[in-house]
Design brief:
The strands form five sheets. The protein has a six-stranded mixed β-sheet with strand order 10-11-12-15-16-19, with helices on both faces. Strands 1, 13, 14, 17 and 18 form a five-stranded antiparallel β-sheet that branches. Strands 6-5-7-8-20 form a five-stranded mixed β-sheet, covered by helices on one side. It has 14 helices and 20 strands. Strand 5 and strand 6 form a beta hairpin. With about 450 residues, the chain is an alpha/beta fold. The longest helix has 21 residues.
Length: about 450
């Protein structure tokens, strides 16, 4: 067949190109074995093209093979098709069309890390820890993370039905959500009480540091002198490394913010604070919880280690790895874990997270099981990780009956609540404000500095 002759030439070129792309230092010793395995890949591709019952596109087969290879690494590495890479770049610039949830794979099950504030999913009552067992009636079993994202996203105004398994519900919940443009307004601020500022960062995108600077300046220019600040990083899944460094720099006048270590020299970097301080010399409380991950952990770790802020809340997610986007010639990209990051004191938080100075359980208390990095299948091993039996054993899922469309009361937005209602519903915020007003934050930070 003509397709076989063409494929023979194509595969020979592919094999040669693949071998040439591998650095000599990586394969010199095992050159023969590497060549043999690439040859096997080429032969399998040839057999599928030549003998499979239906014609297959070489591009789809090769992309599928690359995705499978990358999936053996860790939960945060992935191969992005040209379309997926474009979507990713749009998202980091500030908006996308979807329902507004951060998702991951836990024990092979698609799981919600956190809903994004004020989005269709948030308003529909989707919660952190919900397992997505079906998307528009299609089972998510064996579905890749990127395929799930593409299934949930779609044109503005169109509905998507998510079938959810929730730990404290006996039956499956079916939720219909209308997709919308998700504007990722990453920063907002307010004077929560006279003289006390509240600054919320929901994720780290391209303009987060600039918006944080503007928010701090606005709070500091208010009619009253700022006596203290609450920096809320809860349920912040992270984002761009450079933005987390720049945000930390707004609060620090010198010293290390974060440093990274990877396999190659280019990945070994150290980021230092500069003298142009923006935040004034008032006490700061950083709120963190199980959904605070990656870039938000960099900020929390830097301010904690430098004794600039007190951390209040629950232990963080524990994603202490750095991903690099490597563009490929055909417009696709490789999102690859290339380094671990370390807080100023040398802590690697990979799979361990950051312990707050003052522990205050989230509103779910200790009853609801939360997901952290250490619970993800094939997660990058943490230097300080201690394996516990509960996370090591994958719990079996019981079959449940689906109940009708979920009747979930839409959560009240903070600005719709009185301060009393807000503090009653949010014990972590209440504790932070209380500690600022009573001077405990200043006292504890002074004691920590003296102990050094």
């Amino acid at each position: 067949m003509q397709i076989s002759k063409k494929m023979g030439k194509f595969l020979a070129a592919l094999t040669l190109a693949a071998l040439m792309a591998v650095p000599v230092s990586s394969w010199a010793v095992d050159q023969d074995e590497t060549y043999t395995k690439i040859k096997i890949f080429s032969l399998v591709l040839h057999e599928i093209q030549d003998k499979y019952v239906e014609d297959q596109e070489a591009k789809d087969l090769i992309y599928g093979a690359i995705k499978g290879m990358v999936q053996t690494l860790d939960p945060h590495s992935s191969f992005l098709t040209p379309e997926e890479l474009k979507d990713f770049q749009i998202e980091t610039r500030g908006s996308f069309t979807g329902v507004g949830i951060e998702i991951t794979l836990k024990d092979g099950v698609l799981t919600v890390v956190s809903p994004i504030e004020d989005t269709p999913a948030f308003k529909a009552g989707v919660q952190a820890g919900d397992k997505i067992v079906k998307i528009d009636g299609k089972s998510t079993k064996n579905m890749t993370l990127m395929d799930a994202v593409r299934s949930i996203r779609g044109p503005q105004g169109t509905p998507v039905v998510l079938t959810l398994s929730r730990e404290d519900e006996k039956e499956l919940i079916e939720v219909s959500i209308v997709r919308n443009v998700i504007p990722l307004r990453s920063v907002r601020q307010e004077e929560i009480e006279p003289g006390y500022g509240y600054l919320r960062i929901s994720n780290f995108q391209g303009d987060t540091a600039m918006k944080t600077r503007e928010a701090l300046e606005a709070l500091q220019a208010g009619p009253r002198t700022l006596k203290g600040l609450i920096l809320d990083l809860r349920n912040n899944p992270g984002g761009l490394l450079d933005q987390s460094v720049q945000v930390s720099d707004l609060f620090l006048k010198d010293g290390v913010i974060v440093y990274t270590k990877g396999k190659i020299e280019d990945q070994n970097m150290e980021f230092q604070a500069h003298k142009d301080l923006v935040a004034k010399n008032y006490p700061v409380v950083v709120l963190v919880n199980e959904g605070s991950a990656s870039a938000s952990e960099i900020v929390a770790g830097a301010l904690q280690d430098q004794k600039r802020a007190l951390l209040v809340g629950a232990k963080t997610f524990g994603k202490g790895s750095v991903q690099t986007i490597i563009p490929l010639p055909d417009g696709s990209g490789l999102r690859l874990t290339t380094a671990r990051y370390y807080t100023p004191s040398g802590r690697s938080i990979q799979a361990t997270g950051i312990e707050p100075d003052v522990v205050v359980p989230s509103r779910f208390g200790q009853e609801r099981k939360v997901i952290r990095e250490k619970d993800l299948e094939q997660h990058l091993h943490g230097e300080n990780e201690v394996q516990d039996e509960e996370s090591a054993e994958a719990t079996s899922r019981k079959e449940k009956e689906i109940k009708g469309p979920a009747e979930i009361k839409e959560p009240k937005r903070p600005e719709e609540m009185t301060l009393e209602e807000r503090l009653a519903a949010d014990p972590q915020l209440k504790k932070a404000l209380e500690m600022l007003k009573t001077g405990q934050v200043t006292a504890l930070l002074k004691a920590a500095k003296k102990a050094d």
